[in-house]
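Milestone M4 deliverable, item 7.
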Amino acid sequence: MKVALCSLLLCASAAFADVPDGGSEELGTGDLAGLLDTPVVSGPSRAEERVDDSPATVTVVTSAQLRSLGLRTLHEAINFLSMGMVAQDPLHAVEVGARGVLLSGDYGNHFLVVVDGHTLNESWNGTAYYEQGLAMPIELIDHLELVVGPGSVLYGSSAMLGVVNVVTRRAAEIGLMRVTLEGALLPAQRADGSLSFAPEGFGGTGRVSLLSGWSTELLGLPFEVTAAGEYFMHQGQTLEFGKQTGLVEGDGTSEWPQRWTASGPAGEWGGETRRYATRTTSLWLKSRWGDVTGFARAASYSRNTPAIDGFGVAVDFDGRAYERDRSFDLELRWARVLNPHFSMMVRGYFDDYEYLGAQQSSTFLTNGTGELPEGADPANFSFLLETRGRATWGGLEAQATIDWLGDGRFPLMLGVDGRARAFGATNVDATLDGQILAESNAYEALEWQVAAYAQQRARLLPSLLLNAGVRVDTQSGFAPNVAPRGAVTWTAPWEGRFKVVVSSAFRSPSGYERFAQYEGFQVRNPLLTPERVLTGELGYEQRLGRHRFALVGFASRFTSLIRLEALPEDPPLTAYQNTGGLLNHGVQGLVEGTFGALSYGATFTGAFTTADDGTELLASPMWFGNARVTYTLWDDGPRASVLAHVSGPRLTTAAANQGVDADGNVLRWSDAARFSSPQIELRAVMEGKVKAVRGLWLRGMVGGNVMPYSVYAVGPLQAPGLDFTAPTLAPNNRLFVMLSVGWTLE
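Output delivered:
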């Protein structure tokens, strides 16, 4: 890895040349210092304000940082730059947590992802994606606002752990054409975590994005159009998994379905696979004409995970199992400042979502109505178990802001949001060629929601700011939810800033949690109630020239968390129930600044989380953090950066699993087997413009995870046994080398 890093830095230094001044993306020496200038955010209050005044803890990530540091996704920005948030990769959809709470298997639905005010969490299961599944060119982003803490006061359901607010760029900032080509190589990894550089074992990624911005005047009003498209593909390197062996009966058959057989004998799981792949396609169109803004997005995201992980779609080593999401989002917004005291915004929105999870099996698991095709051998027959989910929702929101004095000191925001949603799902058993054998557990629902919210900001003194708000959500099937928030910010005479925030949030049960049903395993529970959280935090921030540090203490109380629980039934069944409660508290800190051509930053979060009933919930690491250093090699020249993300040990996803010995006695994992190792990810980046070609820039990057294994258990054996004393953990991506090329036509 050292050789690759040195080669990359030498080649990049030879290729890069002076970077001219100008442009919002430039990050020369002076701009590095400017990163500490107080940015303006809109996510916490849904209105523009200084980040220091916002009623939450916010990390702002600029487009310049995204490019110069080589951050390609939300989850990378979270891990390498945010304070209080952490993302972990199970070789599947990335999981995100905050402040010591990561609810494994929630598919991101405890955070709210918002793009230009439009929520991207789908309305069937609340799913949000933070890796390439976001389906958005990173070059389209102006800045990210990573808001930690409950945010239901203005956003409603799902904003329990925080809000990720994505603000896109204006047409003039993009230019007439912006093209990015990107490719990476990843070597094969053996079961012990070591790397293999055999040519046939390499995998890779490729990405191409095309953006165009155009602005003019139409009928006397400013008019602009921004269009963007991206295609991303990832074909994983060869990964080797340790062998797991099941019991084999006297006739040679295994207790495991045939789908777990790789190249070995029946009853053996493990070996090499290349079934780790991702494909993402996205199209974006945004237009602004005077006071009217239109927005449209279409996206497709398909993926294969290389091994069963306990909560994703299981795949065999040579099978056809996969997941696919398709979505379409549309919004039309009108906003105008009518006079110094009054402004209005009205928006209509429509979203459509479709999910398909296909799981290959050789065990006939229908509801009893299906039959095998004529002549099929039950011992060798293979078919697909499909889960098909869908949701369509739309609504109308109106918002008014009354500035009582007309000078921005006492603005009152009032809003109402009404929406309707239709969702449903079906489980389908089908042959590999598409013949449907049976359909089961189908459900359809049509629901409505009306919410009203209010927020009053008040600058009582130049040094004292208050923010108070409340939102009431009335939904069909649930009692009204009330989510208040209050914040006080005081600036001391020495320019230190104290902030006290008390906030709350809720998450309504998803359609999947309320209505999903699997014959012989899981039953429905339409009586679920919303999850809730109440958080208090006290923060202090101090700026000393071009340096800044912050310290935040927090405490949270989570109630009515929804978990899949066993029912007192015979045979045993499960159902989602409101049985979880958490008490969570800790501290987080940040330090950043510049010394001439060098900029630096580091964050740390330490948290302690306990469950009400003593049950071990799979929480995020108790501590995690990041650090970065960027150096401009010469005036306005290329930038070299080193980044690190570290997270402490945490319970593996199999930690709570139990097995039995030959006499039926309960077996539990040892303490050493229950916890994963710390996670350490390192990167080195060189980025800058090429002197010979105007508008051309290059970026080279090398990185990987130092630790061989993640925190996610894989394989059919995920409980302790006489010959199985430690869970098999998914491998980390240990090394990649990437080159990005971009060109902009102004």
